[in-house]
Automatic annotation (TrEMBL):
It comes from Rhodoplanes tepidamans. The keyword DNA repair does not apply. This is TAXI family TRAP transporter solute-binding subunit. It comes from the Bacteria. Keywords: Membrane, Transmembrane, Transmembrane helix. Gene3D superfamilies: Periplasmic binding protein-like II (3.40.190.10). Residues 454-480 are annotated as: Disordered. The keyword tRNA processing does not apply. InterPro entries: TRAP_TAXI.
Length: 480
């Protein structure tokens, strides 16, 4: 057996000995008090750790991306505000650069949340928390253009701001209007390239999908030359049919004067498409966590809307069962006003906690008894008397016999005190009397043997007989 195995055996033996000592109660009082106090400290520390873990704010990672970087900045502002107000849910923003990359990170399980469009990425595992904004499809023509309908684009090119982000939208327009037959082409453009493409007539119109906030509308107007003539907007009259086939989109009437007020552009409500931009969470995310997140975001938007106007567009997702992106149950509970009360949420814990408290009370009482028990009384009186019966024959003189009698007296006094105090561990009085009677009989025989007199009969005493009567057979002298 090597040294390592010897150490393991030694440690195991020590632990077993300690457990055995605790179980049998054969420890000095100070050590028993130390054991109970150590157990109490460990229990308190475990409870404190559990409480800190339970009440600690939960941090969720959220992926965001946009061409201009505005969305990650906005979400970062929301995250900072949640931290400043001590919200139970915190956000850690991961800037992925584009909507497509953010959606890919969410689909790969790298993040808990994502700011994503309904027409981008794999949304099978996604559930809506809030609608961040609605991006409206705008097909804009430069000033002086004669293009009034999509079919007027025959043989021309359309610049697509955002490129691959809007690939699904372009495919839907191609199918619905048979644009391949009309030889309409699409070119992916960045905002920086759009002005040059328009000025050089490389494209006849721009396709942009943007929120209808002044920030984004101003950026779109800035791509076209200013002058007396105004830009034009081409309606998507088949918006309803497209939305029916591709449920990520919704038919939408763009209000008069949205792009420009005087003269108004459009000059009347314009039929087009829009796509919601969601804050999406994994469907497996805890309901209570999502409820707290939805509430925190709705509270925070009111405080930040002045600095970030896009937050004014935050709204509740659709609660319809057949919604394209289902709402998360935790968010649905918040928006439906069905948030669990304290007792709804913790009723079971309170019930079982009361049962646990009763058990802990019993455990505390047992621990107190364990600490308070006198080590001097730990030995059973009957066992000690039985042990003395084995030493009677070894006594060699009257002094030793008298010492045994004094020891018996001390054991009896202690046992009677415990009986009077109703100690549950005290010896049974009847058994104590029988054991004492037997010892007196043995002592009487030993005295007779030491004095050279005939020994008393070795028969057992009759139950219930008085000790003096059983000390020696009839006819023999009684000893004090």
């Amino acid at each position: 057996m090597d040294q390592g195995q010897l150490q393991k055996v030694a440690v195991g033996t020590a632990v077993a000995a300690g457990l055995a000592a605790v179980a049998t109660g054969r420890l000095p009082r100070w050590l028993r008090v130390a054991v109970v106090l150590a157990a109490a400290v460990i229990a308190f520390a475990a409870g404190l750790w559990g409480w800190r873990l339970f009440t600690a704010p939960k941090t969720l990672t959220v992926a965001a991306g946009s061409l201009d970087g505005a969305m990650p900045r906005t979400v970062s502002a929301v995250a900072a505000r949640l931290a400043a107000t001590g919200a139970p849910v915190r956000l850690k923003v991961v800037d992925k650069g584009t909507v497509i990359d953010a959606a890919a990170a969410f689909a790969a399980g790298e993040v808990d949340l994502v700011i994503g469009r309904g027409d981008v990425g794999d949304l099978a595992d996604a559930r809506a928390v809030v609608v961040v904004s609605n991006a409206v499809v705008m097909l804009v023509t430069p000033p002086g253009s004669k293009i009034e309908e999509i079919t007027d684009l025959k043989g021309r090119a359309v610049g697509v701001i955002g490129g691959s982000v809007n690939r699904r939208l372009v495919d839907a327009l191609r199918r619905e209007y048979d644009l391949d037959h009309l030889k309409v082409t699409f070119r992916d453009l960045t905002p920086a390239d759009a002005q040059h493409a328009l000025a050089s007539r490389q494209v006849a119109a721009l396709l942009a999908v943007i929120p209808t906030t002044e920030q984004y509308l101003g950026m779109l107007r800035g791509l076209f030359p200013s002058g007396k003539q105004t830009v034009g907007l081409v309606p998507i009259e088949a918006a309803g049919a497209i939305a029916a086939l591709v449920r990520a989109y919704e038919s939408y009437d763009l209000p008069k004067g949205t792009l420009r007020g005087a003269p108004p552009v459009p000059d009347d409500d314009l039929t087009t498409l829009r796509v919601p931009v969601y804050l999406l969470a994994r469907k497996a995310l805890d309901d209570d966590t999502v409820t707290a997140l939805a509430k925190a975001i709705m509270d925070t938007r009111r405080e930040l809307v002045a600095a970030y106007p896009i937050l004014a567009e935050i709204s509740a997702p659709s609660t319809d069962k057949d919604a394209f992106v289902p709402i998360h149950p935790g968010a649905a509970a918040y928006f439906d006003g069905d948030v669990k009360t304290f007792f709804d949420r913790w009723g079971d814990q309170i019930f079982y906690g009361s049962m646990l408290l009763g058990s802990l009370t019993s455990l505390f009482a047992a621990a107190w008894k364990f600490m308070a028990r006198d080590a001097g009384h730990s030995d059973n009186a009957l066992a000690r008397l039985r042990a003395l019966s084995e030493t009677v024959e070894a006594t060699g003189d009257e002094a030793a016999v008298a010492a045994l009698e004094r020891q018996i007296d001390r054991i009896l006094h202690n046992a009677l005190d415990r009986i009077a105090a109703r100690d549950p561990d005290a010896a049974d009085p009847a058994a104590l009397m029988l054991a004492t009677t037997r010892l007196e009989h043995l002592i009487a025989r030993r005295r007779a043997a030491l004095a050279g007199a005939p020994q008393p009969a070795a028969s057992a005493p009759a139950a219930g007989a008085a000790p003096a009567e059983l000390a020696a057979p009839a006819g023999e002298p009684q000893h004090a």
